[in-house]
Amino acid sequence: ILDAKYSPSGCYRPRAVTADDSGNVYFTTYGSSNGRLYKYIYNQTNDVYTFAWYRQHSDNQTLYYPVGVAYDPVNDEVLVSAGYDNLSYMYVSRWDPDGNYQGKWASKIPTCASNYCRPMGIDTAVVSGSTHVFIAYYSFNNILANRGRIVEYSSSGTSLNSYYADSLGAYAES
């Protein structure tokens, strides 16, 4: 159960939610200047979640149109995928559990034509002790290479693999 305490302007258009290993919940709300990352802390004694903090988009701590959120258990960080249809705003921002901004890395796909690939969902998997980050990209044009794809990154933002939809809708590694 969530209590009624929240940010001064409320929860506007929530987009994605994730939880850490302690049961704390993080979620994003969609928007440009009002894009936010929230944290609710789980109180096991009372079996309730209470508002902890939120971070809002600013020039140096960007949350411009956040659409996905995931927890990285290896690095103990919250990852937020964000972007709109301007390639310069596509990135993953990194936050520690206390809401301190840790940096970002670009997530735009060089092979996407013009401004047509948007990052959407994000998730993590631990492989041999390292975090792998997966981002789903949505495309709204009909160029074959831009019908959507899943890109696998290291936790530092190095692209590892790319899986795209072929003409039959099946996914193949590129």
Q: What is shown here, in short?
A:
This protein has 174 residues and is mostly beta strands. It has strands spanning 14-19, 25-29, 36-43, 48-56, 66-72, 77-82, 91-95, 101-106, 117-127, 130-139, 149-154, 159-165, 171-173. It is globular.
Question: What tags apply to this protein structure?
Answer:
mainly beta, globular
Structural overview:
The chain is an all-beta fold and 174 residues long. It has strands spanning 14-19, 25-29, 36-43, 48-56, 66-72, 77-82, 91-95, 101-106, 117-127, 130-139, 149-154, 159-165, 171-173. Strands 9-10-11-12-13 form a 5-stranded antiparallel sheet, with no helix packed on it. A 4-stranded antiparallel sheet has the order 1-2-3-4, with no helix packed on it. A hairpin with an 8-residue loop joins strand 6 and strand 7 (91-95). The chain starts with 13 loop residues before the first strand and ends with a strand. The model is unreliable at 1-9 (pLDDT under 50).
Strand content: over 45%
Q: Give the N-terminus to C-terminus distance in angstroms.
A: 44 Å
Mean of the pLDDT scores? 78
User: Could you estimate the helical fraction of the residues in percent?
Assistant: under 10%
Topology:
Elements: E1 14-19, E2 25-29, E3 36-43, E4 48-56, E5 66-72, E6 77-82, E7 91-95, E8 101-106, E9 117-127, E10 130-139, E11 149-154, E12 159-165, E13 171-173
Antiparallel strand pairs: 1-2, 2-3, 3-4, 5-6, 6-7, 7-8, 9-10, 10-11, 11-12, 12-13
